Amino acid sequence: GAVVSQHPSWVICKSGTSVKIECRSLDFQATTMFWYRQFPKQSLMLMATSNEGSKATYEQGVEKDKFLINHASLTLSTLTVTSAHPEDSSFYICSARATRGLARRVPYNEQFFGPGTRLTVL
Amino acid sequence: GQSLEQPSEVTAVEGAIVQINCTYQTSGFYGLSWYQQHDGGAPTFLSYNALDGLEETGRFSSFLSRSDSYGYLLLQELQMKDSASYFCAVLVLTMNTGFQKLVFGTGTRLLVSP
């Protein structure tokens, strides 16, 4: 249990195009999902907190018009990188905090991470 | 804002014990988590401390001192497969939204040699 998937696992696109990344919780419901970005050999930087049915909360310095987040259901959040440029090339990772659906007792704080999406913008 | 500091790299041999320290400065602190990440992979949860003291889970233990804003991850009986990056992360409450979020430290690269 507690599996989070991301699709695609990697994507290469041309500069100026938009890319959508999906994050799904497969066996539990998550009212809150998080999007992180990680550059090589660096830490995970929180970009935004996504809450089902409401607007995402973006961290300081993250452009909400460039990184569109939609959390339309309790098992799906999407991140769209609009008009991508080479500097947006990075490893994008989502995570989900379980609210219900897990048979085993899960620490309240535990976040389950997806496998990540490697974005390369040419 | 938040700041977390960890050593950038630690080296050790198989079978040894290693301690990775984490100091933090933040408001709205709930607890301290530790995550392991192998190259190219996703972070995996190791431990969480909300209260002062030591939490033990198999070969890994984690410690927290809230008064010192300090914690550490202790890895015992090191194995080659433990070579990875280890991140401390603080769980904090964002006052303007009421939501909790994880903020990650700089990460420590652990290299275990034979």
Structure report:
Chain A has 122 residues and is an all-beta fold. Chain A has strands at residues 4-7, 10-13, 19-25, 32-38, 44-51, 57-58, 67-73, 76-81, 90-97, 111-113, 117-121. In chain A, strand 4 (32-38) and strand 5 form a beta hairpin. The N and C termini of chain A lie far apart (37 Å). The mean pLDDT of chain A is 88. Chain B has strands spanning 3-5, 9-13, 18-25, 29-37, 44-49, 53-57, 60-65, 70-75, 84-93, 100-104, 108-113. In chain B, strands 2, 4, 5, 9, 10 and 11 form a six-stranded mixed sheet that branches. In chain B, strands 1-3-8-7-6 form a five-stranded antiparallel sheet, with no helix packed on it. The interface between A and B is medium-sized, with 24 and 25 residues.
**Most residues in contact: chain pair:** A-B, 24 and 25 residues
- As a percent range, the share of helical residues of chain A equals under 10%
- Helix amount of chain B: under 10%
Query: What does the main sheet of chain B amount to?
Result: 6 strands, mixed
**Uncertain runs of chain A:** none
Layout of secondary structure:
The complex is a heterodimer of chains A (122) and B (114).
Chain A: E1 4-7, E2 10-13, E3 19-25, E4 32-38, E5 44-51, E6 57-58, E7 67-73, E8 76-81, E9 90-97, E10 111-113, E11 117-121
Chain B: E1 3-5, E2 9-13, E3 18-25, E4 29-37, E5 44-49, E6 53-57, E7 60-65, E8 70-75, E9 84-93, E10 100-104, E11 108-113
Parallel strand pairs in B: 2-11
Antiparallel strand pairs in B: 1-3, 3-8, 4-5, 4-9, 6-7, 7-8, 9-10, 9-11
